[in-house]
């Protein structure tokens, strides 16, 4: 079983924008690089720094010191993050089976096929 990242709260608008930048890049980014990627928002450097610091404290991003700057990267893939949110949502319901059934009923045919494939992999890890 993959390691749980801990309880994941929904991200605010700016936090989500910062995470989108990090998820789109294959390498860790500095505050300045994230700010440049969000240039259409005209954010102060300190604002981007504060958001990244907050995300690091929440465990959503990892950071490593490189010289005088921190480099930030996602602690998990976007898919794993969303999966954690779904698990947390299920933890909040009084009837997980009913919640899962309602979720499955809301799926498109292609989504249901993807779920069937994933369930088949769980049942037979050799596939």
Automatic annotation (TrEMBL):
Belongs to the BlaI transcriptional regulatory family. GO terms for biological process: negative regulation of DNA-templated transcription. It comes from Haloactinospora alba. InterPro entries: BlaI_family, WH-like_DNA-bd_sf, WH_DNA-bd_sf. Keywords: DNA-binding, Transcription, Transcription regulation. This is Putative transcriptional regulator. It comes from the Bacteria. Transmembrane segments: none annotated. One of its GO terms (molecular function) is DNA binding.
């Amino acid at each position: 079983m993959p390691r749980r990242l801990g309880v994941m709260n929904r991200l605010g608008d700016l936090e989500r924008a910062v995470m989108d930048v990090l998820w789109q890049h294959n390498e860790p980014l500095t505050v300045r690089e994230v700010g440049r990627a969000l240039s259409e928002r005209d954010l102060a450097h300190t604002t981007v720094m504060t958001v990244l610091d907050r995300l690091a404290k929440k465990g959503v991003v990892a950071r490593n010191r490189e010289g005088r700057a921190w480099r930030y990267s996602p602690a998990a893939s976007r898919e794993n993050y969303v999966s954690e949110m779904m698990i947390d949502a299920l933890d909040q319901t009084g009837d997980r089976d009913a919640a899962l059934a309602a979720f499955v009923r809301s799926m498109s045919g292609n989504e249901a096929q993807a779920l069937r494939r994933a369930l088949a992999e769980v049942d037979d890890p050799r596939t």
